[in-house]
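pls design
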C-alpha cells in the first residue's frame, strides 16, 4: 500500500526579498513541484511561517512546508496557534515539519540553551503532544508535563485541513526515526550520519526504513517517506558525474547511488532511480535544492501522476 503512493517533489528555498521569494514560489509551481519548503534557522533567510503565507498569495496549488521548525525557538502553544493560522491563511496548504533542534550556531547566536540530546528529545515529545492536541476537535488544551504546563489554552483558530495539517518529523538516529514513525504523517530520513575511518559503517537507507516499519506497526502504510536530495545532476555522462561525486564525498563510486541524496544521470536514468527507491524503500517524497529545480522539471513531467 505504501509503495503505491504517488511521487511528489519539493523545492527548498530561503529567500531574501519579497520579489525574490515570490518569484521562486511561482517558478516552483510552474515547473511542477508540489511543495515549497523552507528551513528554520537564524541565518540569512526569511522567517519561515510568514514567508509561506506570502508564497501562498502568488500560487494556487503549491503546498507550503517547513523542514523543520526547531522546537526550542517557539513555545508549543505559540507554535500551534501560528501553524493553525498559517493553514487558514494559505487555504489549507500548510505542512508542518517539527524537530528537536540540532544546528549549534543557531543556539550560539541566540543564547538559547542547547541541552543534551535526551533533554531536547524529552521537550520535543511533549511539544508534539501539545500541538496535536491543539489540532484535535476540542476547544481547549490542557497539558502538564516535565517541560510544559498549559491550562485551558483556547484552540483557535481551527485549521482548514482536517484533522490537521500533515505533520513531518525526521532524523538520522533510531530513537528519533522511531518516534517519527509513531507520531508523524511524513517521516523524514536523514543520511547525514557521522563517518569515522575506524568506526562502523553507517546504517543504510533501507535499514532506517526497517526502523520505521518496526516502530510504526500497522500504521506504516499511512506514512509518507521523505528524503532530501541535495545532489541532483541531470546529465548524459552519469559515469563521470558519479566519479566526481564519489571523490568529493570520499566514498566508493558504487556507493554514490545507494543514497537518495544523490540523483544522477539522464532524465530516464533518474526516473529509474526514483522508481527503484519507491519499490525498495517506499520513498516517494524528494526535496531538491534550488539550483537543481529547472533541470529536474523534465523528470517531474515523466513521473507526473504516477
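designed seq:
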Amino acid at each position: 500500500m505504501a509503495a503505491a503512493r504517488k511521487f511528489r517533489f519539493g523545492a527548498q528555498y530561503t529567500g531574501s526579498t519579497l520579489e525574490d521569494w515570490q518569484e521562486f514560489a511561482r517558478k516552483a509551481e510552474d515547473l511542477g513541484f508540489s511543495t515549497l519548503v523552507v528551513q528554520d534557522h537564524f541565518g540569512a533567510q526569511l522567517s519561515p511561517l510568514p514567508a509561506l503565507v506570502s508564497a501562498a498569495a502568488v500560487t494556487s496549488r503549491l503546498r507550503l512546508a517547513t523542514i523543520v521548525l526547531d522546537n526550542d525557538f517557539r513555545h508549543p502553544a505559540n507554535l500551534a496557534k501560528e501553524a493553525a493560522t498559517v493553514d487558514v491563511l494559505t487555504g489549507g496548504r500548510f505542512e508542518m515539519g517539527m524537530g528537536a533542534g540540532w544546528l549549534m550556531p543557531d543556539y550560539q547566536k541566540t543564547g538559547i540553551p542547547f541541552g543534551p540530546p535526551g533533554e531536547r528529545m524529552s521537550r520535543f515529545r511533549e511539544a508534539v503532544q501539545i500541538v496535536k492536541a491543539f489540532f484535535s476537535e476540542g476547544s481547549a488544551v490542557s497539558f502538564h508535563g516535565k517541560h510544559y504546563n498549559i491550562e485551558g489554552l483556547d484552540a483557535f483558530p481551527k485549521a482548514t485541513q482536517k484533522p490537521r495539517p500533515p505533520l513531518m518529523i525526521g532524523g538520522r538516529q533510531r530513537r528519533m526515526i522511531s518516534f517519527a514513525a509513531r507520531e508523524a504523517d511524513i517521516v523524514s530520513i536523514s543520511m547525514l550520519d557521522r563517518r569515522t575511518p575506524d568506526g562502523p559503517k553507517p546504517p543504510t537507507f533501507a535499514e532506517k526504513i526497517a526502523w520505521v516499519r518496526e516502530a510504526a506497526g500497522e500504521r506504516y502504510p499511512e506514512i509518507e517517506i521523505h528524503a532530501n536530495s541535495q545532489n541532483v545532476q541531470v546529465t548524459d555522462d552519469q559515469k563521470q558525474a558519479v566519479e566526481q561525486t564519489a571523490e568529493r564525498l570520499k566514498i566508493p563510486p558504487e556507493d554514490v547511488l545507494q543514497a537518495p541524496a544523490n540523483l544522477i544521470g539522464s532524465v530516464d536514468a533518474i526516473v529509474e532511480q526514483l522508481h527503484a527507491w519507491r519499490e525498495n524503500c517506499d520513498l516517494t517524497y524528494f526535496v531538491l535544492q534550488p539550483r537543481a529545480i529547472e533541470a529536474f522539471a523534465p523528470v517531474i513531467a515523466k513521473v507526473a501522476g504516477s
